[in-house]
Amino acid sequence: MTALSASVRVFVRDPYDTGQKKQAALVKQLRAVVSTVVPVNVMHQKIVVIDERTVLLGSLNSLSQSRSREVMLTIHGGHFARRILTHEHAEDFARPPRCGACQLDEVDLRRRKNGDWRWRCYNRACPARKGSRGWETPVRFTARHRT
After folding, report:
1. Is 119 exposed, middle or buried (0-12, 13-18, 19+ CB in 10 A)?
2. Do 147 and 99 belong to one domain?
3. pLDDT tens for residues 105-123?
4. Same domain, 30 and 100
5. Which of 3, 12, 102, 118 makes a 20 to 30 Å CA pair with 50?
6. How many structural domains are present in the chain?
7. Highest mean pLDDT among 36-45, 71-80, 136-145
8. Are both 35 and 100 inside the same structural domain?
């Protein structure tokens, strides 16, 4: 079970997202049992990939479902699962850096209007913070994932 939990990665909305603020305690509990939890600014995808073989894709919020009429399609196949992981940059996004200024791991993933992906510190006490802008650095993509 430990080997499997080491490969579990969960991407959640950033902590300042209106809905996510209400779920702070649940995200803290999630961090206690999952090796990698990555906050993403303005995220809406609902994708679950299991063992690089099974993909759940649809409108269902798999971590917070509550009496709504949502759908989730299950697709079995290693090739498709790996293509989704590559398309979503799962490996590159699963390794957020520490903030280069405050050295904390309070960093989320953001995408600019021009399509560039950036890591950004959301620690409001970070010494690099200027107004609402925090420390940021570009995501470094591996060569095979540059799409």
Report:
1. buried
2. yes
3. 999 999 999 999 999 999 9
4. yes
5. 118
6. 2
7. 71-80
8. yes
Which of 48, 38, 47 lies closest to 139 in space, CA to CA?
38
CA distances from 64 to 19, 43, 59, 134 (A): 11, 15, 12, 29
70 is in which domain, residue-wise? 46-87
User: What element of type H or E holds 136?
Assistant: strand 136-138
DSSP character for 21?
A: H
The reply to whether 120 and 140 lie within a common domain is yes
C-alpha separations of 80 from 50, 127, 142 in Å: 12, 43, 20
> 144 and 95 in one domain?
yes
**Distance from C-alpha of 57 to C-alpha of 50, rounded to nearest angstrom:** 11
Q: Note if the pTM is more than 0.85.
A: no
Answer for the pair 107, 97: CB distance below 8 angstroms, yes or no: yes
Q: For residue 19, how many other CB atoms are within 10 A of its CB? A: 9
